[in-house]
């Protein structure tokens, strides 16, 4: 079934100019579907937008992505190597694409960002938050999202949405992914005023979830009413 085109309120579109948004969440949360819908709505409205993804988004970053997400048959990648490779891709992305786009007044929308590192390599993997924060400070050089949308969905629903051709991250098993979801929920709880981390209920149909995106962004950027 094809999802009909979605529209964003004009007041919200105006507020989003020059902002940096991140779409994030556990594997199977429906994040990618919503990202596609959101970008189409923004482009249909004529708002200049720069789309990036993590890891990747640059020539250097895509090579790092291949190393991170491919199944490795001969050698197991250490957790800190994994975390630092994500940060290396992020550093290139911030300097080469994100910071220049924001300077031009573009809306920047990222498919994952540092929030993923806190959830996957931090809560689920066991790297202390302080270590991730220190590495992120070096990689990002002050390039911080204005808001990170975290798509929250129960584990059974998420598992039913996963592609059967799993990459190395998706294939880590149910216990790992339960910890990942816990990591994202901890980020949400750490921001009770919902300014940095915005929970999006992702359990409904695509159109319903898109409506939830509009609600949380409108609240964040004070465009309601």
In a nutshell, what does this entry contain?
This protein has 225 residues and is α/β, with parallel strands linked by helices.
Give structural attributes.
globular, 5 strands, 225 residues, alpha/beta, five-stranded parallel sheet, Rossmann fold, 52% helix, 9 helices
Please state the CA-atom Rg, rounded to the nearest Å: 17 Å
What summary fits the major beta sheet? 5 strands, parallel
Q: Structural class given helices, strands, pairing?
A: alpha/beta
Order of helices and strands: HEHEHHEHHEHHEH
CATH topology label: Rossmann fold
What is the helix tally? 9
What percent of residues adopt helix (DSSP H or I)? 40-55%
Give the distance, in angstroms, between the N- and C-terminal Cα atoms: 33 Å
The percentage of residues in β strands lies in 5-15%
What multimeric state do the chains show? single chain
| Strand elements, count | 5
CATH superfamily: P-loop containing nucleotide triphosphate hydrolases
Number of domains: 1
Coarse morphology: globular
Give the name of the CATH architecture.
Answer: 3-Layer(aba) Sandwich
Main sheet: strand order? 2-3-1-4-5
In the predicted model, the low-confidence regions spanning at least 5 consecutive residues are none
CATH class descriptor name:
Alpha Beta
What does the average pLDDT come to? 91
Give structural notes.
- 52% of the residues lie in helices and 12% in strands.
- It has 225 residues and is an alpha/beta fold.
- It has one domain (10-220): 3-Layer(aba) Sandwich (Rossmann fold), CATH 3.40.50.
- It has a 5-stranded parallel beta sheet with strand order 2-3-1-4-5, with helices on both faces.
- Helix 3 (59-69) runs antiparallel to helix 4 (79-103), helix 4 (79-103) packs parallel to helix 6 (129-140) and helix 5 (114-124) packs across helix 8.
- It is globular.
